[in-house]
Structure prediction request, 217 residues.
Amino acid sequence: MTFEELKRLVARGESETVEFKRKVAHPEKVIKEIVAFANTSGGSLLVGVNDDRSIPGLKAPEGEAYVLNEAIKKYCRPRIDYREETIRISDKKAVVCYHIPPSKKRPHYVIEDVNIKQGIAFVRVEDQSVKASREVREIIRRSKRDKGVTFNFGDKEKLLLQYLEEHRHITLPEFMKLAQLPRRRASTTLVLLTLAKVLKVIPQGDGDLFMKHQWGH
Prediction:
């Protein structure tokens, strides 16, 4: 990537596939962005760029990259594939760009405590990295392998779609109450309908929004 290409990318601002970081002072916090990109549609993390789209660069890009690379090894599970690129913006400064493709091994987790096997998964929603709920993690996991999804389209499913004719979206607790279902069955229903592309999910941490799939077009 040339400096001119970098400037054009930065000018468009942060998005689902682009994140800016001034420095890697707290790498354990920065890596959630990398995990979110890997779990969603991939993206680019630019280190040496401010949120206001200015590009101050880094005086010691190698040091910043080393710190972040070590954090990725330590805190990300399973291992994430990425490509690191250094873009010179002057004789003394550079920006480090991390290119992260959508992963075939997703979901990935940030392991903040090495004594705990299960960490926190993140996904990208617009220009934010948000915690993935159990439902979103299941959708990510099963979407890798499910060629086709079958489910029983019964009264509860009809009730749900009728509700979504009048409301833009529904949450898991709202569906539980509407259909008088226990959490596990309500969760399974929403996951299956999402995998079947009857619904789409907008991750919101523990309050995901489920809506009819055509809303996303």
Remarks:
- Strands lie at 18-21, 43-47, 76-77, 83-88, 94-100, 109-110, 122-125, 128-131, 199-202, 209-212.
- The chain has a mean pLDDT of 92.
- Residues 1 and 210 are 38 Å apart (CA to CA).
